[in-house]
Amino acid sequence: MTDHGTARRPDHLSAVPAPPTDVGDLLRAVARGDEAAFTKLYDLVAPRVYGLIRRVLRDPAQAEEVAQEVLVEVWRTAARFDAARGSATAWVFTIAHRRAVDRVRSEQSAADRTLKVGAASVDTPYDEVADEVSGRLERQQVRRCMDDLTELQRQAVTLAYYQGHSYREVAELLNAPLPTVKTRMRDGLIRLRDCLGVEVTA
Amino acid sequence: MTPTDVHSLVGAYVLDAVDDLERAAFERHVGECPSCRTELDELRETSARMADSTWSVPPPQLKSSVMAAVGRTRQLPPPETIKPERKLRGSRTQRWTLAAAAAVVLAAGTGTTVFAIQDQRVRDQSAIASAAELRQERIQSILASPDLVVRTSPMRGGGKVTVASSATRNASVVALGADSAPQSDQAFQLWSLRGDTATDAGVLAAGEGSAVQVVDGLPGNDGLGVTLEPAGGSKVPTAPLFAKVSLT
Question: Which residues form the Anti-sigma K factor RskA C-terminal domain (chain B) (predicted)?
């Protein structure tokens, strides 16, 4: 919200102090048991939490269930958020992604999944994966930066993040050696970090 | 795994593309390498930005369900009240204790159980520090073996058992995480399976649904079985098998 917008707001509305809309501030209030702050936090992060989980799990019903777990977990563990180690939104999405991936992994034993992935790898159209990912990238910056990655970096990162594949599965899907995939995930994220200008100041 | 090998997992780690044991190994590594932590934090921040593009309208009932659950969910206290900063002998011990707690937590899976375990572990940290340190060293030396073979099997009733075996160390690290813990008068028991013979390989504490145990002499057997027994364990396994991890 810009100062300009605030200044133009009618008096009878601006008489009430504007609530904090920064996710970090809200999370700190939530840590003190502030349910009203949690409601605001919900509105800010729930669409991305639900969207991310749904992207990974594919199944809307399961996504709803896991999203609920994640959001309650955010409430429960808010006091554990450490601003020195990253942003509040990253903290929330880290919980969400981890839970989504845990659900994927618990759905199928590792062996089943590897077999399935192995069988599917023959005809999985990777372009489709890439298209789907970039097609839905609403944030121009992330999209632009993803385009800067090499093909293998981008595939390694997106197959893991958006589809919940382990790096072993990614290696099989891409028919690439395990150490290469590990390295591409790291290189890819480093390049993305530099492009996005991500910094964590302790 | 050498520190370099472990550190090369940083990308896979922030993408949640590692298994439970690799995650535990990586977190131990980062605990001892402050500069690695900066890279970890930055890459985690970066990966989270990828969630920006996943915006999707949640079902309307989600908010009311979440708010209802929040109303009956007790919050964790700030970490200051549980951080074991002062009582321990030295920073090394602190790290091991936290790493041990983390390993248990990570191996166990996620959710309420996990945090309950972590809290309890950290509360009891003085008492378990020495034991945890020894055990953790043991676990780490096995997990660091070049010939490590990792096998996983789902558990009856939900959850999973992971067995990481090193033939050269003639030992395995068994991580058991059941979705539901046994009754307080029952316990999970581990068995080395060879042919038709099952040999006791350790009993978990009564009512304990998750644990990380070292089982000596397990490599070379056909598999590891898990049964539910009366507290304290049994001489022979009681059917049914709750999990069977094949090692052949």
Answer: 98-240
Query: Is the separation of the CB atoms in B151 and B223 below 8 Å?
Result: no
Q: In what order do the strands lie in the sheet with B159-166?
A: B149-154, B159-166, B171-178, B210-216
CB B206 within 8 A of CB B184: yes
The answer to whether residues A66 and A84 touch, using CB atoms and an 8 Å cutoff, is no
pTM over 0.90, yes/no: no
A72/B17 Cβ within 8 A = no
Per-residue pLDDT of chain A (202 residues; tens, 9 = 90+): 444 444 444 444 444 444 447 889 999 999 999 999 999 999 989 988 999 999 999 888 899 999 999 999 999 999 999 999 999 999 999 999 999 999 988 875 444 544 444 433 333 333 333 333 333 444 567 878 888 999 999 999 999 999 999 999 999 999 999 999 999 999 999 999 999 888 876 5
> What ipTM goes with this model?
0.77
Same domain (yes/no): B127, B44: yes
Whether B10 and chain A come into contact, CB under 8 Å, resolves to yes
B152 touches chain A (CB under 8 A): yes
CA distance A172 to chain B (A): 13
Token pair of A36 as six digits: 């009203």
| Residue range of the domain that includes B92 | 3-141
Q: Do B51 and A51 touch (CB under 8 A)?
A: yes
Nearest to B46 among A64, A158, A193 (CB): A193
